[in-house]
Write a structure and sequence with these properties.
CATH superfamily of the largest domain: Bacterial extracellular solute-binding protein, family 7
Oligomer: single chain
Number of strands: 12
Distance between the termini: 23 Å
Order of helices and strands: EEHEHEHHHEEEHEHEHEEHHHEHHH
Strand content: 5-15%
Number of helices: 14
Helix content: 40-55%
Length: about 375
């Protein structure tokens, strides 16, 4: 997958030799479509930053649409060096990434998207040695976890109450599986991209996900109803999940360039590519005739029940998967959520401020050799 181009080497008259300059052309396989905001906005900007910071010695090529690896197949594709990097969602491969999945499975109520993204990154990279160990076991290095906006229900049939969900099939992942079970629906596991045809063919009735998915995955022409009640946030989806041999073959300067620009990757991926896009998509959805329902106390009761029940359930599942001290991991997450909820008050929706905060609290503290 990697083409190596050797630069011209000038030698002196006394035949001294010098090492060639090497440009690494790396392949990033994304299972998301080309129009997904992550692929259209977030990653191209980051890859440009890397190219500039390394003087062109690192060139990432983005191949979207699952051409090289599916969502569930990305961990194996990276491990097998079929691709150099990709986007990883722990619920797709819970056996390989059990500690990360324990974090991902926790439903965070409310709508502090920025604060939750900050807490996810600090937890995963600085306070979860088991996360780093499982990436290493899978021959990978991981960083750059972004956050989506709170999940909503996007449905083909009319759904406006919890009662309407009885007997329906809903695409869900992470903590959303338990939320839909509590609501009386049948959760169905599949990637957002796979859900497009499933929704169209009636294999699923609804998709639980971010509003931006109406555009990102082509649901706009299929969906007729959206329940706007926030059904929690879960994550992080990891944007930079890289083959470890590829990472270790980079120079310190090249690796540091990836880390130095990772905070902006997360900030853009969370604010510009998620929150801002949601607002644009809602306007288009209303214009296309999609009906928005507010939801109410019935949905609030489901989320309250999920928050109340989830810790015991996550501890049980993660412990069975071999994760140690799951209660301690979740307690640290609670602590970091409080910290970042306070920081996000000042950050607001400012990409620059969020980048600065992530650098100060997380990415400036990363030891390249510890990843």
């Amino acid at each position: 997958m990697k083409n190596v181009v050797y630069g011209t080497v000038l030698v002196t008259a006394v035949a001294l030799t010098a090492a060639p300059t090497v440009a690494k052309d790396l392949v990033y396989g994304s299972w998301m479509g080309a129009n997904a905001s992550t692929n259209a906005i977030t990653l191209p900007r980051y890859f440009d930053r890397i190219r500039e910071a390394t003087g062109g010695s690192i060139n990432w090529t983005l191949v979207p649409g699952g051409q090289l690896a599916s969502g569930p197949g990305t961990v194996d594709a990276v491990k097998g060096n079929l691709i150099d990097g990709g986007t990883t969602m722990a619920p797709y491969t819970p056996r390989e990434l059990p500690a990360t999945n324990a974090i991902f499975t926790r439903t965070v109520a409310g709508n502090d998207v920025v604060g939750t993204a900050g807490a996810m990154n600090e937890l995963m990279l600085l306070n979860c040695p088991q996360c780093l160990a499982e990436y290493k076991r899978n021959e990978a290095v991981a960083f750059g976890g972004y956050n989506t906006t709170p999940y909503l229900l996007m449905c083909k049939p009319e759904v406006s109450t919890v009662a309407d969900l009885s007997g329906t099939k809903v695409r869900a992942s992470g903590g959303g599986v338990e939320i839909m079970t509590l609501a009386g629906a049948t959760p169905v596991a599949m990637s957002p991209a796979e859900a497009t045809s499933a929704l169209e063919r009636g294999v699923v009735d609804c998709v639980m996900g971010s509003l931006a998915w109406l555009r990102n995955y082509g649901y706009m022409d299929i969906t007729k109803h959206v329940v706007e009640f926030p059904l929690g946030m879960a994550g992080p989806p990891i944007l930079m999940y890289l083959n470890r041999d590829v990472w270790e073959a980079m120079s310190d300067v090249e690796r540091q360039a990836h880390i130095d620009n990772a905070a902006e990757l997360v900030a853009v991926g969370t604010i510009t590519a998620q929150i801002d896009i949601d607002a644009e998509v809602k306007v288009k959805a209303l214009e296309s005739g999609i009906t928005f329902h507010q939801g109410g106390a019935d949905f609030a009761a489901v989320i309250d029940q999920r928050v109340q029940d989830q810790e015991a359930h996550i501890i049980e599942i993660a412990t069975q998967a071999g994760v140690e001290d799951v209660a301690g991991l979740l307690a640290k997450y609670t602590e970091l959520l409080a910290k970042w909820n306070a920081l996000s008050t000042d950050i607001g929706m400012d990409v620059g401020k969020f980048t600065e905060a992530l650098n100060a609290e997380v990415y400036s503290k990363i030891d390249l050799d510890a990843l």
